[in-house]
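Sample A.
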Amino acid sequence: MSRNQAPTRRQEKAFKIKMEKGGTMGEILRETGYSPTVIKSPSKVTHTKGWKELMDKYLPEDKLVDKHNYLLDNERKEETQVKALDMAYKLRNKYPKENVTAIQINVNKDREEYA
């Protein structure tokens, strides 16, 4: 699949399902007829120019910022609006990825001395 194309019909259908019903991208891609290879790697769809165009058209950044500011300034938070904004941020990959730090300590010599 080329990464430099306008949205395909399947991308449009998948995007519409994601917006209306939610669910995992794997489930959505299966429902819209993508191959098992693409279903296992949703980024083959979500990292395309076509998908980005859909995001820009239906979830423009300025609209998200306006809604975010409205919710920050408003004392009465509408749960539905907060959830919708959260979903939009997730779709646009705006949350930081978790950083995992692994530390390995090797203890072998004089092990009994420290017990």
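Sample B, a different protein:
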Amino acid sequence: MTCVPGQVRIPRLSAAHILPGAKARASLRGRQSVNQGVNFRLLSLIGQVGVMMVVFILLGLVVGQWIDGRLGTSPTFTLGLMMLGIGAGGWSIARMVKWALESTAQETTKHEQ
């Protein structure tokens, strides 16, 4: 293959270059399946984070408006419960992310052994 001036050609390395033979292919197959599972788990985590935050904020909004309507206090409970929803959502998301990272690390180390 010829290179065009100004273009850099980067060679591709495969498992056969690093680890020779069938052992390399088997090793990479196992790692790819573990990494794919981890990637899908992290993608689902991103979706859950958004949904959880919206649910907590909307719950605070709806309950706050209901209480404000009953008591006649305009935005007091709505704003307060929305802020409480933001805090509760952040705390819940932090717990969920911590759990997901710990389980991912355990699964990765289990498959590497």
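Observation for Sample B: The CA atoms of residues 5 and 92 lie 54 Å apart.
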